Every structure is written in structure tokens, then in C-alpha cells.
What does this fold into?
Amino acid sequence: MNVLLLNGPNLNLLGEREPEIYGTTTLSQLESLVAERARELGVAVRAFQSNHEGALVDRLHEVRKWADGVIFNPGAYTHYSYSLRDAIVATRLSVVEVHLSDLTQREPWRRVSVIAEVAAHRIMGKGIAGYLEALEWLVAHPR
Ligand code: DQA
It folds into this structure.
């Protein structure tokens, strides 16, 4: 099984960005943790982060024939990116939408996700553990 670990804008600053909300684990530590668990599960993982919407769309297109699933934290694009939503539909990728924080407990505008409807599964409010749960979910629900 092949999985893309995809992180959107501002997630490159994990560890220093609002640690009281997003925790102190850095993006590279997160990517290593997911890679480690993936190895145990026999899953190949590629990781990518971008602050640019088009770069995220491009990456979804690029992996569409390789990936069996995507662990995706779209960051703030969650709330308004129809191009990312369309890319998920267009590529037919099985996407688990992950958020470190619990969006239901934050500002009202964060409760809206244009991604949720096209995601295969959604995990939020579990911090870094949510990414590992997403990997396990993909393994348990092959397409
Ligand atoms: C986030 C929540 C988003 O609202 C925010 O813009 C992020 C991170 C999360 O992981 O909790 O960048 O996706």
C-alpha cells in the first residue's frame, strides 16, 4: 500500500506555531513518526507540505496512480478551497482529512469544511495521534 502524507499552509511551522493549540511536535518529527508506523505496517509513505494551493493540487494529481490513500491536513484551505475539493474528486483518491485541533470547539468559520464531503474519513482534535489513526484507517479500509 502507498500513502501520501500531505500538509497544507502553515503546517511547516508545527512545533513553534501556537503550540497551545497545535502541540510542540515539529513537521519533520511528525513525518518521521508516520514513516515509522508505516514501515511497521508495510506501507510506503511519501510526505509533502506546501503553503500554496496549486502545489497541493499538483501533488494530488502526481500521486493519483501511485497512492492508495492520502492523509491530508489542508490547514486553512479546509474552509474554502474548492480547487482542493475538486482535485480529490477528480483523482478519486481515498483521503482522510486530519486536523490537529477540534474544529467544533473553535471559531465558527473553522466549523465549515469544503473537504469533508469528499473525504473518505475525518479525524480531528487528536493532535499528532490523529495522523497515525488516519494511516491505520487507510490500511483497514483499502479501496
Ligand atoms: C488545522 C485547523 C485549521 O483551521 C487551521 O487553519 C490549520 C490547522 C488543524 O490541524 O487543526 O492550519 O487544520
The CA atoms of residues 62 and 69 lie 13 Å apart. Strands lie at 2-7, 44-49, 69-73, 95-99, 121-124.
